[in-house]
Amino acid sequence: MATIDLTEQSFAQTLESNEIVFVDFWAAWCGPCRQFAPTYGAAAERHPDVTFAKVDTEAEQALAAAANITSIPTLMAFKDKTLVFSQPGALNATGLEEVIQAVKNVDMATLRADAAQNV
Fold first, then answer.
1. How confident is the model at residue 59 (pLDDT cuts 50, 70, 90)?
2. Which single residue of 16, 73, 77, 86 has CA 20 to 30 Å from 104?
3. pLDDT confidence of residue 117
4. How far apart are CA 34 and CA 12, in angstroms?
5. Across all residues in the chain, what is the average pLDDT?
6. What's this model's pTM, rounded to 2 decimal places?
7. What is the DSSP string of 74-109?
8. Is 56 left (phi over 0), alpha (psi -120 to 50) or beta?
9. Kindly report the CA angle at 78 between 17 and 104, in degrees rounded to 5?
10. CA–CA separation, 33 and 37 (whole Å)
11. Cα–Cα distance between 22 and 52 in angstroms, integer?
12. Would you say 53 and 22 are in contact if contact means Cβ atoms under 8 Å apart?
């Protein structure tokens, strides 16, 4: 599956409609972002069960600000509408694959129970 472009208007609906969503916050002028793009696109093709989205931080400044993006590229992963991973910097293919598998393996019931205990 190809990556999709997210806007402030489509962000929440995308999280609501998909179990796992990866979001790459990027900009056209960012060299590391351009280097990461083919790796991210290839991962999207290998994992059709995961939604891979991109947010152009120049076009979607309010969305980037709401997500507290201070460095790009930043990769975020959501599972069941919950942020489970956030890291600035471009990953290589192996690193990205490890993150994808880790997110797929997150036990949301345990995560929610742990979060409830820490409140």
1. very high
2. 73
3. 82
4. 25
5. 94
6. 0.93
7. EEEEEETTEEEEEEES---HHHHHHHHHHHHT--HH
8. beta
9. 100
10. 6
11. 5
12. yes
Residue 98 phi/psi, 5-degree rounding, is -65, -40
Evaluate the omega torsion of the peptide bond into residue 32 and state whether it is cis, within 30 degrees of 0. Answer: no
Extract the tokens encoding 40: 């991210």
Q: Is 31 exposed, middle or buried (0-12, 13-18, 19+ CB in 10 A)?
A: exposed
What gap in Å lies between CA 111 and CA 61, rounded to an integer?
Answer: 30
Q: What is the dihedral of CA 105, 86, 90, 93, to 10 degrees?
A: 0
Tens-digit pLDDT profile for residues 4-33: 999 999 999 999 999 999 999 999 999 999
Annotated catalytic residues are: 30, 33
